[in-house]
Each structure stands twice: as structure tokens, then as C-alpha cells.
Amino acid sequence: MSVNDDEFVWFRDFFGRKTGIYFEDNKRYFVDRRLTARMQATGHKSCLLYLRFVQFQASQSEFQRLVNAMTVNETYFFREDYQLIALVDGVLDDVKKRKKPGESIRIWSMPCSTGEEPYSIAIYLLEHWPGMADADVEIIGSDINSAVLDSAREGLFTDYALRSTPPAIVAKYFKQVSDTTHRLLPEIREAITFTQVNLSNPDETRSYRGFDIVFCRNLLIYFDSTSRREAVECLYGALNPGGYVFLGHSESMSRISSLFTISKAADALVYQKPL
Amino acid sequence: MGLVRKKEKTAAKGELRFRDRSKEDLLDQLRDPQASERRWAARDLGEYADTMPVLCDCLATESDEAVRAAILTSLLKQRSPEIALRLSTLLRSEDAALRSAVVDVLTDMPDQFFQIVDPLLRHEDVDVRILAVTVVSRLPHPAVPALLLDVAERDAHLNVVAAALEGLGECGTTEMIGRVQAIAARFPGNAYLSFTVSAAAGLIGHRSC
Amino acid sequence: MRRILLVDDSHTVRMYGRSILTSLPEVQIEEAQNGIEALEKTIAQKFDLLLVDVNMPKMDGYTLLRELRSRPALWSIPAIMVTTEDKEEDLRRAYAAGASFHLSKPFDPEFLRRSVALLLGEGA
């Protein structure tokens, strides 16, 4: 069972159109392995027949499984923590002063994958942001992949996911359930809302508005330029004036969009929707 | 205080109106004094291909960058040679930010741009020719190298020739090296042009190793 | 050590500028492909001079200059605007945006070197 060049191109264009995520040639091995796994799971001997099946299945459940297979990302708690430092070292205070009484500070983690990012933000704020004492903070985690969202809600994490987490934090916020796994306390798990969304689809993102902070790390780089424009429009629309966007460590708006004002917070470059 | 769960969403003013707005309502909203309203209208008008002329007209006079970006995204969604043609007229604009935004979008509609590129490469305005060459250089189209070589051999203006050579450095083929090198003779003694010719020939040669 | 930032979407122009300026003593040259990248670099680290093209994708040269001039930490960095031709309109715009000086493309090597030296405070 294999994937030939034409089939790869067909898949790439089809998947790119539907999700905005576009696989370069250097991801060939990654794609082929996952495609053949899905072909095997669904009993299709030819990639072409498998892709036709995916395209025309009424329930689209196989398409969702395919998306899930193609969008697994490496993540762990407190990854790129220089951005969390920037949050508590100026960004949040700036946001807070524009809030009216009773208004929550709203943070969107997109993509949230298996939850490490939104949970990290939550814990970090509780531990390090004095402003938390008299502010309401609402955190929403979203992803195109439904399986990772289920996993995120479970709140079960391995030692590996917690490898950068101080033991005192693990002890405080997690309950050990086996030698190598820990479950996040319900107070934190239940405080985060997890939703499924495709960022490059304006119909799906339309209701995501009024956010003060968006973490959109290591997602935009996978989009083709048209879908990336669409995604940036969604992020812009999702933010309140003065709201902030955090991109991944190696990403920059310089290849993406000039809509956001650039500034520095602690050691991080941050992008802000103009006031 | 502290972490709170997402509250039941109360629809924002704009959102409620979305469900009720017709194309005519959206066209009115495109003239709203508030930029945020114009922006949502521009976003939603992307669904209506026949609004393309109105969107293009707005582009020339819209001063808000975010609204402009939304208009361009909608035009990109609709993409057609007609849109590429109308956008290309904005390459003559005095507004550098608008020119830059138009170049970005034209680059994202390669097939449509390619259909209207010839007159742009012969435009009387040097800056338009340079911008057209810039876009062409970024297009993944098999006819690009020959097109750029033609410009480099034919155009009277040094900066246009240099821009075409730059593009050739990225996509030219080994058979072209001789002709690329010959272009130095078109502007003899010009340090910048000989530099550009060697750079282009060097990059092409490097790729064939 | 003086740090110069070459801002132009053309790889060849940046290389050309670099080849001319490396002969100046004690200079370190860096590059940016458009106004946004230039702004990010100048926010992250100190530069002593910018050479800025007008037409660039994502953010043009005039917008970059206006951004620089609006920021207290960056407003006084010398910036040479590079124009295609010396049209009066373009020059007016360049200086209105905050250019310290202008040059037209393609640079005359000696003129570029002298202009840079002058703006870096070394005299002619």
C-alpha cells in the first residue's frame, strides 16, 4: 500500500482547500505514513479510492479522522514560557485597565491540541499574576481535531508532557493516577471551555469575538497564503481593540500581515490590534 | 474572581444583524462611518460575486488598513481575471501601502494575474512595470522564466531589467545563462547591472549542480 | 561597532548594498525583507542606520518610517530612503514620512558610502 506522486498532490490540494493546512513536499513521509494508516483502517487498497471515499462520505466522519491523524502537534506544559512571562509582565495589566467592571478578560488558545497550552496559561496566571485576585479570566481552547479536544477535557498527562513543569506545581495542581500519569485537578479542568473550530473557515469562526488575548502558535505556518489571510482576518475580528496575538517562537507577522502593531513585552515580540 | 468558565454568549450587535442582513444592507454597511462596521460588511460581501465592482471601487478610497485587507480577502476569494485587471490599475496608485497590499493579493491569484500580465509588463509607468515583474517573479508558473528573460532583454529601464534579472536568479534555467550574461552589454559600465547579472547567472548555475 | 539594517525585498539589492558597505570600518550589516521585519528587528535590537526601499510587500518604506518616527525609542535613528527615480512627489513623501536622506536606485557605490558615513557621524 503506497501513495504515488499524483495521489500526494491530489491529497495535498484537497486537504489544503478544506482545512487551509497545506503540506509542503518535505512533509511527504509524514503524510504518506498517515494516509496509508487510514487506508488500512478503512480497507482501501488504493489511495485514490480512499480519497474519493473521504470526499463523498455523507457523515464526513472519516474526513474528521483524517484531519485528526494529520494535525497532531508536539506540545508540553509551559512550552515557550517567555510568552507567559510577557503575559504577566505587562500584557495582562494593559488589557485589564481597559475592562469595565464585571467584564472578563478572555483568552483564546487556538490550536489548543491536547490542552497543555490553555492549562499552562491558567496555572501560570494563578501562580504569577497578582491581577488574578480581582479579575475574571475566561480561557477557551479550540482545535480542528476532535480527538485531541476529548483528550484535553480528560486532563490526563504523562511525565513527558510535564517535563518542564516544576515538581511543586505538579504536586499542587495534579493528582498522580499512575507511575507516569497525572490528572489535572477538576477546578482547573472544568474552568476551561474546549471547542472544535476550523480557523480558516469564516462561518465557523464568526461567533468567536471579544477576546483580549489569542495564542495562535505554530498554526499559521501550515496554511497556504490564501487560507492564512482568512485565518488572520478571523484572528483580527476575534480580538477586542488593543487585544494581543502571540505567535510561535519562530513565526513572525512579517510574512503574514501588517494589521497588527508590533511591540515588546518582556522578552517577547507581541502583536496588538490597534485601539 | 480568578478563572471563570465561559459565560453563555450574548450576541454582539454586529452578529445579530449578520443573520438578517441582505446584500443591499451589506452594501450600505460598506459606507458606514465606523471602520469596524465597514470591515464586517467587506468580509461578508465576499459571498456575492456580483459585488466585485463595488468592492474594487471602495478599495481606491478606503483609508482604513483593516477594511482594505478585508476587501482584498473577499476579492481574493472571488478571484477572476477581471478582478486581477481591476486590481492591477491600483499599481499606479500614489499610495505605497495600497500598492504593497495589491501586490500581495495579486501574488495570491497567480492564474488570474497571468492572464492579464502582458500589458502590465509594457506599461508606460516604470514603477508599474517593476511591480508587475515583482509579482511575476513570485508566481509558480512554467512560463515565468521566459517572460522575465524577455523583459530583461527588451525593457529600456535599468531598474526594470534588474528586477527581471533578480527573478531569473530564482527561477531561470541553465540554457538561459548565456543570454543572461549578455544583458550586461545593454548598460555597459554600470556597476549595479553587472553585479545583478553575475548574481543571477551565479544563482542559476548554482542550482544546476 | 555600528549596525546598519538594509531593508529591501530584493535579495540582489541587499547583496549589492552589503558589498559596498562592508568596506566601511567597524560596521555590521543586517537585512530585512520588508517593513514589518525591519520594525521587528529594530524593536528587538539597536541599529545605527537604516537603508529603506519604498516598494516592499506587507509593509512599504514610508509606512516603516512613520512607524519608526512614532516610537520614542526609535524616532531618531537615521534612515536613508531609496527611491526609484527622483520624482519630486516621492521625495516630498519620503521626507514627510521621516527620511533623513534619500538616494535613488541603483546606488552609486561611492555616494552610498559617503552618505552612510556622514549619517553615522563620521563626516565626509
Describe the structure.
- The complex is a heterotrimer of chains A (275), B (209) and C (124).
- Chain A has two domains: 66 residues, Chemotaxis Receptor Methyltransferase Cher, domain 1 (Orthogonal Bundle); 191 residues, Vaccinia Virus protein VP39 (Rossmann fold).
- Chain A has eleven helices and ten strands.
- In chain A, the strands form two sheets. In chain A, strands 6-2-1-7-8-10-9 form a seven-stranded mixed beta sheet. A three-stranded antiparallel beta sheet of chain A has the order 3-5-4.
- In chain A, a hairpin with a 4-residue loop joins β4 and β5.
- The longest helix of chain A has 15 residues.
- The radius of gyration of chain A is 20 Å and the shape is globular.
- Chain B is mainly α and 209 residues long.
- Chain B has a domain of 68 residues: Leucine-rich Repeat Variant, CATH 1.25.10.
- Helices cover 67% and strands 1% of the residues of chain B.
- Chain B has 14 helices and one strand.
- In chain B, α2 runs antiparallel to α3.
- The longest helix of chain B has 17 residues.
- The radius of gyration of chain B is 22 Å and the shape is elongated.
- The termini of chain B are far apart.
- About 2% of the residues of chain B have low confidence.
- Chain C has 124 residues and is an alpha/beta fold.
- Chain C has a single domain, classed as Rossmann fold (3-Layer(aba) Sandwich), CATH 3.40.50.2300.
- Chain C has five helices and five strands, in the order βαβαβαβαβα.
- In chain C, strands 2-1-3-4-5 form a five-stranded parallel beta sheet, with helices on both faces.
- The model of chain C has no long low-confidence stretch (mean pLDDT 93).
- Chains in contact: A-B, A-C, B-C.
- The interface between A and B is medium-sized, with 35 and 25 residues.
Mean pLDDT of chain A: 92
- The top-level CATH class of the domain at 142-209 in chain B is Mainly Alpha
Secondary-structure element order of chain B, as H and E? EHHHHHHHHHHHHHH
Q: Which class do the helix and strand fractions of chain B yield?
A: mainly alpha
Number of domains of chain A: 2
